[in-house]
């Protein structure tokens, strides 16, 4: 068996287990069971974290092997990934992490912020934001908090994933292959990228993915002028400008990486035209909401963000994002 890089202790999972170590008995998953009968829903929090962490390591090692054109190593790593139950097992483990007793559904924070900003009304079908269109990249379930708002302030949620857990509600497609909508009305008000960037093994692909999110966001707010006037009359202080990108990362990606800091991430986002409008750190996750300014994104096309050491030290992880020029 091929040895992979030593575990990056502080980057494991991305889903926080809470204090309870009891086995999850929740049964609302749409996760499929693989031929290997891997069923992480029965695993302990520790075992779930270990499975997610091992997947991250194997995928990272595979990306390096692909870059070095080491076909034999790629095959060995593919075998190891398959033996672990493949992507389906990884997703099921992540879905387990979405259980309430493991830290929950990250879209709860998105919904909280949309409400706070007056983009979602307090009651069904009464508030502004009726027409909010959401694209969820890396979707595991159609039952999360943002999905439950469909018909209650959100018009629709388009969910995509590399490996769909339920083809009727989650389209199986790589975001990088998702056709860019030609017309503004077919684009989205909110794009969600929750715990996806850290899953992408290649640092340049992470940058490309972030850049591509802009093509899916509308140029104009969906709040009609009447909606805006009504909203401002009700709560003048609220800023209802759209469109927005919701990003969630394991906190150590920003707080303990050799190549990334919170400020550096904000610089990358700012360069892409994204203004930070909300942020929250839980014990294990960093939640961020950005607003895209389509005018700002046009400037300074030559800047490059390389993988450079920003925070030296021993006990660090290697999370990085590389952004090539436009
Ligand atoms: C850790 S799970 C996170 C799921 C969920 N968003 C959450 O916050 O719990 C990461 C998911 O991102 C998906 N993913 C990674 N890269 C993707 C891509 N390029 N296009 C679509 N989905 C992707 C993976 O298949 C995986 O299901």
UniProtKB/TrEMBL annotation:
Enzyme class per UniProt: transferase
One protein family per Pfam: Bmt2
Binding site for S-adenosyl-L-methionine: 138, 161
Subcellular location: Nucleus, Nucleolus
CC terms in the record's Gene Ontology section: nucleolus
UniProt cross-references to InterPro entries, sorted A to Z: Bmt2/SAMTOR (IPR021867), SAM-dependent_MTases_sf (IPR029063)
Start-end of Low complexity biased regions: 24-36
Entry's EC annotation: 2.1.1.-
Keyword terms, alphabetized: Methyltransferase, Nucleus, S-adenosyl-L-methionine, Transferase
Record GO terms (molecular function): rRNA (adenine) methyltransferase activity
Keyword ATP-binding set for record: no
Region of interest (Disordered), ranges: 1-43
SUPFAM superfamilies registered for this protein in UniProt: S-adenosyl-L-methionine-dependent methyltransferases
Family: Belongs to the BMT2 family.
Record's function text: S-adenosyl-L-methionine-dependent methyltransferase that specifically methylates the N(1) position of an adenine present in helix 65 in 25S rRNA.
Protein name (Swiss-Prot/TrEMBL): 25S rRNA adenine-N(1) methyltransferase
Source organism (scientific name): Lithohypha guttulata
Gene that encodes it: BMT2
